[in-house]
């Protein structure tokens, strides 16, 4: 899947068995899946905390644009890239 395959109405969510967790030992946020582990940066955490299956992609982008006072096109491109990568890794559904 590419970034362009996501519509503004897509409602991303973490797939069953995938968890967003703060790792106390490593003192960082991680995305855990069966036999997989991804260390996340702060913005990725902000994005994934909004991926609850209820919020459409357009609203997630709007909230992050406002929070970070950033250009909407840049935020949308970055959010789509992250979500497409996680979709390809079978960690995210739409």
TrEMBL record:
GO annotation, biological process: pyrroloquinoline quinone biosynthetic process
Classification via InterPro entries: PQQD, PqqD_bac, PqqD_sf
Pathway: Cofactor biosynthesis; pyrroloquinoline quinone biosynthesis
Annotated GO MF terms: quinone binding
Keywords: PQQ biosynthesis
Subunit details: Monomer. Interacts with PqqE.
Name under which the protein is recorded: Pyrroloquinoline quinone biosynthesis peptide chaperone PqqD
Organism: Rhodoblastus acidophilus (Rhodopseudomonas acidophila)
Lineage: Bacteria, Pseudomonadati, Pseudomonadota, Alphaproteobacteria, Hyphomicrobiales
Gene encoding the protein: pqqD
């Amino acid at each position: 899947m590419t970034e362009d395959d996501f519509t503004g109405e897509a409602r991303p969510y973490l797939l069953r068995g995938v968890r967003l967790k703060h790792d106390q030992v490593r003192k960082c946020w991680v995305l855990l899946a069966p036999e997989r582990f991804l260390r996340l940066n702060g913005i990725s955490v902000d994005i994934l905390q909004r991926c609850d299956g209820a919020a459409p992609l357009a609203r997630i982008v709007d909230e992050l644009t406002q929070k970070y006072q950033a250009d909407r096109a840049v935020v949308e491109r970055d959010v789509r890239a992250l979500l497409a990568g996680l979709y390809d890794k079978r960690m995210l559904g739409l």
